[in-house]
Amino acid sequence: MAGEGEFDFIARRLAPLTQGHTGAYGLKDDGAILAPPSGCSFAVTSDTLVEGVHFPGGEDPFKAGWKALAANVSDLVAMGAEPKLYVLNIVWPKGGFETRVERFVKGLAEAQAAFGMALVGGDTTSAEGPWTLSITAFGAVQGTRTPRRGGAKPGDVLLVSNFIGDPYLGLQQRLGLTLFNVPAHSSFVEQRFATPSPPVALFSKLHHYATAAIDVSDGLLADIGHILDASGLSATIDLSDLPLSAAALDWVSRQEDEMAARLSLATGGDDYEIVAAVPENFVRRFSSECAQIGVRITRLARLEAGSGLDVSFNATPVQTGALGFTHF
Amino acid sequence: MAGEGEFDFIARRLAPLTQGHTGAYGLKDDGAILAPPSGCSFAVTSDTLVEGVHFPGGEDPFKAGWKALAANVSDLVAMGAEPKLYVLNIVWPKGGFETRVERFVKGLAEAQAAFGMALVGGDTTSAEGPWTLSITAFGAVQGTRTPRRGGAKPGDVLLVSNFIGDPYLGLQQRLGLTLFNVPAHSSFVEQRFATPSPPVALFSKLHHYATAAIDVSDGLLADIGHILDASGLSATIDLSDLPLSAAALDWVSRQEDEMAARLSLATGGDDYEIVAAVPENFVRRFSSECAQIGVRITRLARLEAGSGLDVSFNATPVQTGALGFTHF
Description:
Two copies of one chain form a homodimer. By secondary structure, the first copy, chain A, is of the alpha+beta class. Chain A contains ten helices and 13 strands.
């Protein structure tokens, strides 16, 4: 790290991100001391993002920093945990520190403010290789019970937060496709792709009502498959039920094969929204409480005994296998 | 990861490393639930090791896995924390999974058994780049007080555990030098370099007696410098007081410039031993309790008001600056 050494980087750039959290010791020690709030446990999750794999090569470092934190936050929310603290490990590419550091730290700072988090520790090094960001994030959970992949019961209802598919469109746009005539749609899907905002406030509703939950990172259908596999249940998702933003609806309306278009949105991934299973008799209350905190909830399916995910479109079965869609 | 997919790798290879820890959920979820033992906080530390930077390219993956965990364990011990749990993030080099996975997991398994730890989560991915291992480790601390770099007081005594310098000799040997006529010495320094064993049992003694502590990773003198800087104190270290193993003593005895040889041992780093400051009136009790748990303690210096580290050899000042030794 020419120009700005490791200690300078930590003291000048990263220490302010601790927001004075006492256990972080101003990042001057080799570790931090963390105690969950009274009556709580920590939910802990960890994601590694590699430049060129998990975000595009040459990405604005602001967006890389934001996305690295968002990817962890959405896991915490799915666990019914309030995002609190994080540890950051960085491998800088040789010669790639000076060009990235300022925008990266700005992106982290804005993301942690948006998500209510503070930095408590980590490690920074450099190597001949791609820029690599590992974050381990801590959330507070009341007691020790959390919704898990495997907790859903037959009869529970599968629900999803906000909109699905915008990040897929954002990625296609990054790859050079012109998708929209409306500039606002274009910037909306870019923002949903590059600086996703998981529905943080949802954590307490999931803690109270959800029997199972997962964040949508692999793709809506794949992540529903994870819940079904772990819970030993089956479901049918109708692609006409996908909750789509105005931008996605506009795009779908101009596609020749609407079913294929919707399947792309349901499998694209990187949504960082939440799929949850909620017992039928709580669905109305859950949805209404979510609406009050600004999170839109859409009903996708009723979970049934059996195994596997079936997909339909306007009630006609879709042969997902024939589309090379073989995850489950 | 050709042949063995990510899910197989996690289920077959990594899940057994959770040792059934309930909060790990068998590594089937996106996160873990952790609560410190009653009356305790978590000490949290994190280290990233990159192949070719922090361990040699082509290293036996058993040794890489061991060392990645050991590097974190020594930070926890220095914080007076009992090592408990860890989260593991791996970036495999493209095509480098099959050749590394078996020995790597074996090294992790043996290291965690030696250190009393269990795996609770993480992330695994692959990229065009060097093999990268990030570990975030959790230790249990009674209450929230820990020895820190900045806690030492004038009059406290600076002490070090076991031996210093063997890993430096292990590295020189790796670089092709023949250092020993005695094969046992050769294998001893290799083992101290490649599979270091931090003095885990020391954690409770440090918690009770130490005002400051740090693990020796940058090099004994550099890490003492960190304590002096953070505590606002000064000290003089005499190189004749270095605690040396039989192997290191044998090597030193055959060097033309004994002072330079000892300085190399005191600055080589990667020792993963502990330097601690203990009030004078507790030093005898601390040392005797450490001896009972098999940890040898050596007195290095009395901490004084002022700033900076002076180095001497047989009571004659050493001009470390002239040796290109300018860290402090």
